[in-house]
Amino acid sequence: MKQINHHIFRKALAALCLAACACGSASARDQPLQVLHWWKSASERNAANLIAQRVGAHGVGWRDAVVPSGSGVGAGIVLRSRMLANDAPEVAQLNGIVVRDWARLDLLLKLDTVAAAGNWDKLLLPAVAATIRYDGHVYAAPLGIHRINTLFYNRRLLRRLGLDAPATWAEFERIAPKLQQAGIVPLAQSSEPWQVATLFETMVLAEGVDLYRGLFHRGDVAAYSDPRLAAALRRLRAAKRWMGSPIRERKWGDSVRELAENRSAMMVMGDWAKGELLARGLAVDDDFGCAAAPGTGRYHLYNIDTLSMLGIRPEARAAQEKLAALVLSPSLQADYNRIKGSISVLRHPALAKMDACARASWQLFNSGAAARIPSLMHRMTIDETVRDAMVAEVHRFFLNDSVAVDDTQRRLGTIARTFIQTK
Ligand code: GAL
User: Fold this and answer.
1) Residue 334: HSE in the Cβ half-sphere, 13 Å Cα cutoff
2) pTM of this prediction?
3) Record's superkingdom (predicted)?
4) 62 CB under 6 A from ligand 1?
5) Angle at CA 287, nearest 5°, toward 283 and 291?
6) 276 lines ligand 1 (CB under 6 A)
7) CATH no., domain 6-147+304-368
């Protein structure tokens, strides 16, 4: 099967090279593509460098336009203002729902020719293929799938204290005091809004998949008064006592470092944190393990990193298409996703080359639609304005203990009622 992938891939690339030469465009290397993304941590940097180097070997220049911002909140703002100033980059990391929103405004290059030549419909996992399409056209080149509901744990610390990684929040509450007594922070966490929201969405999922879908996929207003939403909010507040004091607004990479340096025992984060642990020289199984975030073992809460092309410079098109084709090469997929902590978007990746965390993620993602939950925080569901308003409410609730649970529920419900258009 891998051979077939290679074969399809080579044919597609050959077709694209021919197209590029036929229209007599200037060498792609002469005019590097500016790529706007938000990857700044060590593993993110290594992953971006790998793509730059591989596409460079095929004559496509890559010029970094990095806007460091965990989860890309700042990068989105910069991209929008650059668009308005007529200074857009040729390539941008958009992801999920943002791809659809920009496609709707006719701001993205259609990648239909590349997708057809590369047989993307056969090559890509169907769930991935669906997220890069809008109105019958392809608008993004997918890189990898991240599992958001991952619990990373420091194996050495848990082993030393004779503790098991918790499968539920009740189990977590049982082991947390023991860790704290031993002078270890049970849960590495930052008070940065997107990081609080990432933890919170896993807690909502732990309360019920129908609750998660009702709140964040269907925008079902009644779900906002569900007592299980109150339980998730209380859970978030209760978990604060296990996060060390004070809880700082720090980068996610700093929490990873705390875990790696044996100062904290666990961390709930998307599996880009695995990439960072690996970059710090730690090994899956020996040094750290990954499990599902408590109470979410049956679900794969995910997002997909993608690159979209902005059609601002017609002469860049051949290079943009070549870049799109190249990111799906089996070897780039395997190497990139290993560095990044994500899993391949291909139907038949080299499973044997994956570590235990990646293999578990891949199997669950492909176990059926019921297991797959597009993430609110990481741009896979409702649009960014609504998401940002919700994140602000959850953040306020997290920081200020005097904000009442029912008040927050009501405010979230109002946001849903005001903004979400039912489909
Ligand atoms: C996610 C993105 C990841 C990673 C993370 C932290 O939204 O999908 O690739 O970069 O943010 O910045």
Assistant:
1) 14
2) 0.93
3) Bacteria
4) no
5) 90
6) no
7) 3.40.190.10
